[in-house]
Each structure stands twice: as structure tokens, then as C-alpha cells.
């Protein structure tokens, strides 16, 4: 059942809102999470309205926290958690 939901979610990109200005972002880049235990899905999008990146990650709580900690270390600044509106069937 979980595999079916994951496959359905992979087929269509989620609706992601910008973490800064809440504009709905029309495109989200799905990131490869194969080497990230506990992360089911991860997406990145760039908001042209406020020129900020938004990240949305789905997975086990500890793995999501570790993902954001690594992301903050990589970009050198605080990253706000995003939210993903589930796609139909997920």
C-alpha cells in the first residue's frame, strides 16, 4: 500500500507554496532521495515573486530534521520548513 502511494505521488508534482510569501509555486523539482534513509520525497522550487527557494520534504521526523540541518549547513543560513499539499491518491 505504501509503495502504491509513493508511486502515485511520484507521478504528479505536489502543490507547493512559497515559505516566504505563500505564492503557489507552479513547478517543483523532485530531488533524488535514494541515498537518504527515512526521506520518502523531497522537492525544491524557486519563487520568482520574492526570489527565494522553497524546500518540501516528506519522511520520518528525524530524517527530515537531519535533511534540513544539512541543507542549512550547505547554504549557510536558516531554512524554513515547507509544506506539501498531498497529491490525489497519496
Describe the protein.
With 90 residues, the protein is of the alpha+beta class. It has one domain. Helices cover 28% and strands 29% of the residues. The protein is built from two helices and six strands. The strands form two sheets. Strands 2-1-6 form a three-stranded antiparallel β-sheet, with no helix packed on it. The chain has a three-stranded antiparallel β-sheet with strand order 3-4-5. Strand 1 and strand 2 form a beta hairpin. It is globular, with a radius of gyration of 13 Å. The C terminus is likely disordered.
Question: Any key phrases for this structure?
Answer:
single chain; 90 residues; alpha+beta; 3-stranded antiparallel sheet; 2 helices; 6 strands; disordered C terminus
Amino acid at each position: 500500500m505504501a509503495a502504491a502511494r509513493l508511486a502515485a505521488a511520484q507521478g504528479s508534482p505536489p502543490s507547493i507554496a512559497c515559505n516566504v510569501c505563500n505564492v503557489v509555486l507552479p513547478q517543483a523539482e523532485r530531488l533524488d532521495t535514494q541515498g537518504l534513509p527515512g526521506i520518502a520525497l523531497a522537492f525544491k522550487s524557486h519563487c520568482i515573486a520574492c526570489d527565494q527557494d522553497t524546500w518540501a520534504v516528506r519522511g520520518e521526523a528525524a530524517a527530515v530534521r537531519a535533511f534540513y540541518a544539512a541543507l542549512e549547513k550547505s547554504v549557510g543560513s536558516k531554512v524554513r520548513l515547507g509544506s506539501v499539499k498531498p497529491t490525489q491518491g497519496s
